[in-house]
Design a protein that fits this description.
Helix content: 25-40%
Pfam family, one: WavE
Protein name: Lipopolysaccharide synthesis protein WavE
Oligomer: single chain
Number of strands: 13
Structural class: alpha/beta
Strand order of the largest sheet: 3-2-1-6-11-8-12
InterPro entries: WavE
Organism: Marinobacter nauticus (Marinobacter hydrocarbonoclasticus)
């Protein structure tokens, strides 16, 4: 395929640096140039903030949104507010997608870039779906980077990456046309120790769940490690029916330097905690297409051994930490 005129790419986020969010020098220019190279004929939309240095950047449309600011989801055990850029992510993605007029769209962070266009073919490779938990019109292709199967040593549900999305424009709008997070107000009532038995839900869990709740209000997590068998199965069904999860190499996605080298997500420990493409294929086979080939036993064994060394031992650390947190809360609340 040499013409991608039915695709728009929304490059969202700061161009170089934005308040507390530093960027790799020149990364947004690299991002935009990569879209021109690997998706010729596509429409390129840059969705960013006021006051950005735009000179020399190549795009078709520019979307400037007012900064909603960082949001406080909860207060820490010490009473300090925990700030996130959830609302910034929602606004820059949502407003960019509203400008799309093509059938398909890509959501791409301004600090990542394309190395190919394999994701276009991947989106069409898995046609079968079940009659339940099939919420989107077509599958959306996502990156496995930060799409975690394990966190703190335990299986976790609904932990979907926010890095990269490709699919029908209407499906991406469904996923990102979200209400903004309201700020926590009370350091006592909205305290991490009072709200959660283990850890707060991850931001990426919250984005995905807020979208899924448009179709099924029963879908939720109470905390990061909300991992009952029924919750994990519900999560797997949503993944199997609505997504294709693949590695950056499989997609044609390049990551900026802060996610490479010695970064936690690039180490063996981080990588083997993520969903692997063949693992997603396994749940696709289980729920959608029983005739889909099984993964080789050697591949399964290799990942099992890596997790045995790098993932499962973390469970004990987590159990000890949660015990200490519980004792601290019982003895004095906020420290």
């Amino acid at each position: 395929m040499s013409d991608f005129s039915d695709i728009s790419v929304v490059v969202q986020g700061p161009v170089q640096s934005f308040q507390d969010r530093e960027q790799e020098p020149g990364i947004t220019q690299k991002c935009l140039e990569s879209v021109r190279q690997h998706l010729p004929g596509s429409t390129l939309i840059l969705s960013t903030w006021p006051g950005q240095e735009l000179a020399g950047l190549d795009y078709d449309r520019l979307v400037i949104s007012e900064d909603p600011g960082s949001n406080v989801r909860f207060f820490g055990r010490d009473g300090a507010p925990h700030r996130f850029n959830n609302n910034r992510q929602i606004v820059s993605t949502r407003e960019g997608l509203r400008e799309v007029t093509t059938k398909y769209a890509v959501k791409l962070r301004s600090d990542n870039y394309l190395t190919g266009n394999n994701f276009v073919a991947l989106q069409r490779e898995y046609p079968k779906r079940t009659s339940t938990h099939c919420f989107l019109k077509e599958r959306v292709v996502v990156s496995n980077v930060f799409t975690r199967q394990y966190a703190k040593g335990f299986r976790v549900p609904f932990h979907l990456s926010d890095f990269f999305y490709f699919g029908l424009t209407e499906d991406l709008r469904t996923l990102w046309d979200l209400d903004l997070f309201e700020d926590a107000q009370d350091p006592i009532h909205d305290n991490e120790g009072a709200l959660y038995k283990s850890y707060p839900p991850d931001c990426t869990q919250m984005f995905w769940i807020k979208a899924l709740q448009k179709f099924d209000t029963s879908i939720h997590v109470n905390e990061l490690l909300d991992r009952s068998a029924s919750r994990l199965e519900q999560s797997d069904l949503c993944f199997a029916n609505n997504l294709v999860i693949a590695s950056p190499a499989d997609l044609g996605l390049g990551l900026c330097q802060k996610f490479l080298g010695t970064a936690r997500i690039s180490r063996t420990k981080g990588q083997c905690a993520q969903w692997q493409h063949w693992e997603w294929q396994e749940i696709y086979r289980r729920y959608c297409d029983p005739d889909f080939p099984k993964a080789p036993a050697s591949v399964k064994a290799n990942l099992f051994l890596k997790r045995l060394v790098h993932v499962h031992p973390v469970k004990l650390e987590t159990i000890v930490k949660l015990y200490k947190n519980r004792r601290s809360s019982e003895s004095g609340g906020i420290k």
